[in-house]
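Protein record

Derive tokens from sequence
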Amino acid sequence: MSQNDSESPEMLSLTGYILAKETGQIKRGIQLCLKAIGTNPHIVDHYLHLGRIYLIADKKEYAIKTFINGLRISKDARLQEELNQFGTRQTPPVSGLPRHHVINKVAGKVLHAMK
């Protein structure tokens, strides 16, 4: 392997997370984690770091998708723990429509009120 240690996917991912967390360099942190995933997509730490950066950036939806993608690689307890913090959501009443569609919103409120 011709990469030196500072350019390894593991170091890119970790450096990206530290930059985002400690210095607020969110964009750079995301870039480094995405590069790490592109180089070696089979390491769950990359998804963990990227998801946590998205949380720092208040991009919850991206974080959730990233953690789920990581779980597809491996059933890592840390990724599952991150997802558990969001709680579970039920399937929308009309599964063929997006969750934010007005029909799903109204139907969800009605069903919730009936419980």
User: Anything to note?
Assistant: DSSP finds six helices and no strands in the chain. The two ends are 59 Å apart (CA to CA). Helices lie at 9-23, 26-39, 44-56, 60-73, 77-84, 102-114.
